[in-house]
Specification:
With 212 residues, the protein is α/β, with parallel strands linked by helices. It has 11 helices and 8 strands. The strands form 2 sheets. It has a 4-stranded parallel beta sheet. The chain has a 4-stranded parallel beta sheet with strand order 4-5-6-7. This is Bifunctional 4-hydroxy-2-oxoglutarate aldolase/2-dehydro-3-deoxy-phosphogluconate aldolase.
Amino acid sequence: MNTLDLLRADRVLTVVRAPEISDARDLCAALVAGGIHVVELTYTTPDLPRHLERAAATASETGAVVGAGTVQTGDQATQAINAGAQFLVTPGQGPEAGAIAEAARSAGVPAVLGAFTPSEVMTALALGSAAVKIFPAHQLGPKYFKDLNGPFPGVPLIPSGGVNAGNARDFLDAGALAVSAGTDVVAPAEVAAGNWQSITDKAKAFCAAIAQ
C-alpha cells in the first residue's frame, strides 16, 4: 500500500518535532501500536538523516512508513531520500520547491508541498505535489477546507498546525484526506525521553476521536 492509500485508510499521520529522538525504531513502533502508520520526522530535529536511516532500516519490523518533513531545499530532499524517506513534506513553497518536487519525482516518492492560499494550492499541484498540506490549518479552520473543495474537488488536502483530537474529525468531515497529528500525540519531551507507552496511548485516543 502506498503512502496516499495508507493515509486514506488511516486518515492521520504524525509529525514529530522534537529536540531529540531517543530511538526512531521504538518511536515508530509506539505510534503503529496506537494505530498511526505514517510518520513524518522533520528537519527541525538535529541529525535527521540518522533517525531516518534507523526508522527505514526497521520499517519491516514496525510497519511504519516514514518520511521527511520541513524539507526546504533540493539538497535536503536528496539527503532524506538517500536516508530512506518514503515521502517528503514541505512547510510552504520556497525558491527550491521545484527542486524538491523533482527530487521526489526522480526517486519515485510522493512530495506533499505546503500551501495556504488557493494560488499556492494551484502551484503545488502544477509542481506535481501528490497531496497538498494546508498550514497553518487552525488559522482558518475546517470551513476553509469546504471552501477549497469548491475549486479543487478531489484534491487531497492535509491540514497541519493546530490539529488535535478535539477538532481533527471536523477537518475530515470538511473534506480533508487526512490530518496531521503533532504535539497532541508526540509531545517533544516524551519523544526525547522515550515515553513510548504514553505516545501509544495518545495515538490510540487520537485515532478513536477521528473514528467517531
